[in-house]
Design a protein that fits this description.
This protein is an alpha/beta fold. The protein has nine helices and 15 strands. The protein has a six-stranded parallel beta sheet with strand order 5-4-1-13-14-15. Strands 7-6-8-9-12 form a five-stranded parallel beta sheet, with helices on both faces. A two-stranded antiparallel ribbon has the order 2-3. α6 crosses α7.
Length: about 260
């Protein structure tokens, strides 16, 4: 733990690390307070594209945690930056929440349901057959298929819910086109996080709850990784992967004991 505490910066996942749904996890308050008191550089990365940084800040605020909006970076923001770098001024048909649409607008990407350059899919609770049918038609006509993240499921207070990887699957199967996913384990997300806090990869630790997105992203970015068992991964699951995190703890509270 002392090696972790010496790091200048912390990049942390959110779902399954800080909370499940609207329920804060044990030890999180102590962990965040310790980082603030010790002037650690901090950014929260989330593969979820459902909320803006301000909304995430407010969500933590309702749980009693005061974290400014500029400490958050989402897969919606990463997706918007990626598309803007690929094709400035492009258009998109979006299946997702308002936060994803806003992130795209902020990068000068506008909505188009006739002949868009991209079909972009993120987490949403307004999923429908009509939207899938429309997306399939547009992809067949030439729109490129983009997913904000490849997560199949995400943790909730009640268990798990389908995430982008599951929602985009019918479009991939029906069109024969594979989506490009911007979120973790794509190292783009972690590199954005490093840039945001101004740290070198050797100066930070990445904390996550998923072997298949968080831990592999950290390893491929040459960053020390911490797996917390407070999310979707159980200790017996670790041996199912050909790579390992550098550290394994029950939750983030263990990092500051």
């Amino acid at each position: 733990m002392e090696q972790i505490k010496k790091k200048d910066g912390f990049i942390c996942d959110m779902d399954g690390v800080l909370y499940h749904g609207n329920k804060i996890l044990p030890g999180v308050t102590e962990f965040i307070n310790w980082m603030i008191e010790n002037n650690k550089r901090l950014v929260f990365l989330t593969n979820s594209a459902e909320r803006t940084p301000h909304e995430l800040s407010m969500k933590l605020g309702r749980m009693g945690l005061q974290v400014d909006a500029d400490h958050f970076y989402t897969s919606a923001m990463a997706t918007a930056e990626f598309l803007a770098s690929q094709k400035p001024g492009c258009t998109a048909y979006v299946i997702g929440e308002a936060a994803l649409t806003k992130a795209l607008y902020d990068q000068g990407i506008y909505m188009n349901d006739v002949n868009p350059d991209y079909v972009v899919v993120g987490e949403t609770r307004t999923y429908s057959f009509e939207k899938i049918e429309k997306a399939i038609d547009l992809v067949i006509k030439g729109a490129k298929l983009i997913g904000t993240n490849p997560d199949i499921t995400g943790p909730t207070e009640k268990g798990v819910a389908p995430a982008t990887g599951a929602l985009i699957s019918p479009i991939e199967i029906s069109t024969g086109k594979k989506a490009y996913f911007v979120g973790k384990p794509n190292p783009l997300m972690l590199r954005h996080g490093l840039k945001k806090i101004g740290c070198h990869s050797s100066e930070i630790v990445f904390v996550g709850d998923r072997m298949d997105t968080d831990i592999i992203a950290g390893i491929e970015s040459n960053v020390d990784t911490v797996l917390v068992l407070s999310g979707v991964t159980r200790i017996e699951d670790v041996d199912n992967f050909p790579y390992r995190p550098k550290y394994i703890v029950n939750g983030v509270g263990d990092l500051v004991k």
